[in-house]
Amino acid sequence: MIIERPKPIAEQVEIILRGKIRGSEFPSGGRLPSESDLATQFGVSRATIRTVLATLEAERLITRRQGDGTYINKRVMEINTRMGDEWDFKHMIENSGRTPQIKPIQVEMRPASEQEQEALELEKGGKVLSILRLFLADDQPVIYSENIIPAVLFKQLGPYDVTKPVREILQQYCGEDIAYSISDISATMPIPEILDVLLLSGDKPLLKFTDVFYNDNDTPLVFGLNYYNDKALRLRVARSWG
């Protein structure tokens, strides 16, 4: 049995406030209540509200106007995801207004393949932890995902809670954080095994994300292969330039 620890207060407020914004409880382009009013509404301190607003501002979901207030950014109101440090599928599903679930399929320690050795800069015979998972949105399978992590990064032996996003897995078990990633996106005809898991027929291609995540020292942390059913979950991306 996996026991989930309660989320920090700021994270809980962030999820609720983002849901209110996405759910059009506040008008697109309109002004949010003041920090004091939000603090009263959520029963938290103004410092917590400032932390939450800073996160939403960094995502471009809101904008702050000096002396005028905080406004909802109507241009990204309908965007389900963003391109930042990583493709955060759990976050993307939450922002679509659906309930995310990460379902482990297989977790195994094994020798790296040639492709994985090259991507992760491993010696021949190096071992990796392969984490094969299915992402669901309201119980509908939408993403088939495999994350490959070098075994040498882990600070402790398993078992590992792989129902977490890959960033949290790295932070908790490897003491590492993702600084940036490089992604290749293509359309591909997946193998029957993937189609079966996603409950799809084999007549249409899926989006394939091939990702490598790095830390601040340019060390590769994760090699990822993800098959995305964009018919079930719309993909739109906002990118910050500058």
CATH class of the largest domain: Alpha Beta
Number of strands: 10
Number of helices: 7
CATH superfamily of the largest domain: Chorismate lyase-like
At CATH level 2, the architecture of the largest domain is 3-Layer(aba) Sandwich
Q: Beta fraction of the residues?
A: 25-35%
What is the total domain count? 2
Please tell me the overall pLDDT. Answer: 85
Any low-confidence stretches, pLDDT <50, length ≥5?
Answer: 78-86
Overall 3D form: globular
CATH topology term of the largest domain: Chorismate lyase
Q: Decide which structural class fits the backbone.
A: alpha+beta
Helix content: 25-40%
Task: Report the biggest beta sheet as strand number plus sense, adding barrel if it closes.
Answer: 6 strands, antiparallel
Can you give a write-up of this model?
The protein is of the alpha+beta class. It has helices at 9-22, 35-42, 46-58, 89-95, 114-120, 166-174, 192-197, and strands spanning 62-65, 69-72, 81-82, 100-111, 127-137, 140-150, 180-188, 206-214, 220-228, 237-238. It folds into two domains: 9-76, Arc Repressor Mutant, subunit A, CATH 1.10.10.10; 81-238, Chorismate lyase-like (Chorismate lyase), CATH 3.40.1410.10. It has seven helices and ten strands. The strands form three sheets. A six-stranded antiparallel sheet has the order 4-5-6-9-8-7. The longest helix has 14 residues, at 9-22. It starts with 8 loop residues before the first helix and ends with a strand.
